[in-house]
Design goal:
Elements (H helix, E strand, L loop, with lengths): L26 H17 L14 E8 L6 H12 L4 E4 L6 H12 L3 E4 L12 H19 L15 H6 L4 E2 L2 E2 L9 H11 L4 E6 L5 H16 L2 E3 L2 H7 L11 E2 L10
Parallel strand pairs: 1-2, 1-6, 1-7, 2-3, 4-8, 5-6
């Protein structure tokens, strides 16, 4: 039996959007554009292959919460392509529409990971086991239908967890080092400073591609070159664990902010 944990509530990543992505006028042309980009990425076969562990040096994983959407997610993908890197996207199931699924496919075909951030972004510590399972399965099913692969990792909404969640969610839990970029009052420079101050080998950076979060898009133009200059290689969450020789263990009861973490919180 796993030992009983008290409910743990952390507000480090609160206030992100939990509703479905909006679709305004002009979406048809936008969808066609994203479909074309997804097809182009797919034809280039950019899905990343795991290399021998000895081939990796300093690694870091950029992650983005609360997509996919037709507003900010494409801008983030444009930045990733411009800088020649990959990231991991923790998606909300209710945000996966026909339009946003095309953008999610583009990310996947670029070599990015698509991971689970629940169906509706609730506080799962207040839910029953069956309600939690339904949230997880809804999103994993949507992701699998769109890209052909189920998520391997889960980020708890609000980083709020309890024992029931550990018992019923069959994926490792991911946190990460954040920049409070869900808060519009945190400017571009402060976001950059927060990310760079917390960067570490094997670390996970927590950002958001929620609707309208253009300050994070702008911050990427400074974050990515600065970390490259420090010798970091940008990898997906899957690659991060592989590069550090850490087995993907869904029963670990660790909320990872870096791959080699052994305590519950990093």
């Amino acid at each position: 039996m796993k030992k009983v944990l008290k409910t743990i509530l952390m507000g480090a990543v609160a206030f992100s959007l939990a509703m479905g992505a909006g679709c305004g006028t002009g979406e048809n042309s936008s969808l066609e554009k994203e479909s074309s980009k997804a097809e182009d990425s797919s034809s280039q076969n950019k899905r990343r292959q795991l290399r021998d562990k000895s081939d990796y040096g300093k690694v870091i994983a950029l992650t983005f919460d609360d997509g996919p959407n037709t507003d900010t997610t494409p801008l983030v993908l444009d930045k990733l392509e411009e800088h020649g890197i990959v990231a991991s996207f923790f998606v909300i199931g209710n945000n996966i529409t026909d339009e946003s699924a095309e953008i999610m496919k583009r990310a996947y075909n670029m070599g990015c990971d698509i991971e689970n951030h629940s169906q509706s972004h609730p506080d799962m510590t207040k839910m029953t086991a069956e309600e939690i399972k339904a949230e997880i399965n809804f999103t994993s099913d949507k992701v699998e239908k769109a890209v052909g692969e189920r998520p391997q990792f889960f980020r708890p909404p609000y980083i709020a967890v309890n024992q029931t969640m550990f018992d019923v969610i069959d994926m490792p839990f991911i946190c990460g080092y954040g920049a409070e970029d869900y808060n519009n009052a945190i400017g571009v420079e402060e976001r950059v400073e927060k990310v760079l101050a917390q960067a570490r080998d094997g670390g996970i950076i927590l950002l958001h591609d929620m609707n309208g979060n253009v300050q994070t898009v702008e911050a990427l133009d400074k974050i990515i070159p600065a970390l490259k200059e420090q010798g970091y290689e940008f990898v997906t969450i899957t690659e991060l664990f592989h590069a550090k020789g850490v087995a993907i263990d869904p029963d670990s009861e660790i909320i990872y902010s870096y791959a080699e973490q052994t305590e519950m919180y990093g």
